[in-house]
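# nightly structure sweep
# worker-07 picked up a monomer target from the shared queue
# config: single-sequence mode, recycle default, output format = structure tokens
# input follows
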Amino acid sequence: MKNKNHYLTEQFITEWLTPDVGFVFRAGEVLDDFSSPYQHIEVMETAAFGRVFRLDGYLMTSEADEWFYHENLNHIPAITHPDPRTALIIGGGDGGSARQLLKYPGIEKVVVCELDAGVVAIAEEFFGKVHQGAFHDPRLELVIADGLKYVAACQQTFDLIVLDLTDPQGYAEPLYSREFFTDCARLIGEHGLLSLHVGSPQFHRERFRHLFAELNAVFRVVRPVLIPITLYGGFWGMACASQLRDPKQLDAGTVELRLQQRGISGLNYYNGDTHQAALAVPNFVRQLLQPV
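# output follows
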């Protein structure tokens, strides 16, 4: 069922961040609209963002600005790791995260564990600009499965785990728990990194605070990552967690050198300066994350 607070009416999309705050943009042609066994999926054209898709009424990605999200979610942990070889993406059925990680010549295997085959199907049909052929890279393994069960049963280890998920509700809610983070920590060991989005520190204060508390209970290094994502309503939060690796220890020059050495190009947002900027924490976020 569509979330009643998210709707397409008179050719406008309204995305509510809270019951009192939202933003609006003009929609165009609806390209697909159906219900999978898990959620309602819509694909539409827009003048501002190109093609976009929504799950249960929530905006997920767009052609025009997906890179604000995907570049930071993936390159901050990947550049922090000295030599990433293997990665697990939970969710990420649009292929945007896989595309970014497959830029690394040292990457030998990327597993994408997506719950809903319908998301992969619409990505393949409508969002070639987002995945850019990632699903057909021989280094990619696509698994259609529940990420919670996959991680619990998994015996492989990974250098990187990226949780490219919907918000913490419904099927995704257990994937934001301390128990799930503990399972992820087992798979990445001492030297790997975990990356995920955690919502807006401005509009989702309690969620933001709670998720950092859960991460800090499992990992010794947990860094807020703060970036603008217009499609999600503005100022947005991510987290990068590890037992040993600290993205904040990389200066801009080191980031630029690693990008050059690894042949990473074609980025619209991420560079040495933005790496440091994304890890700078405003005072109100520092106060938000202080122990209660």
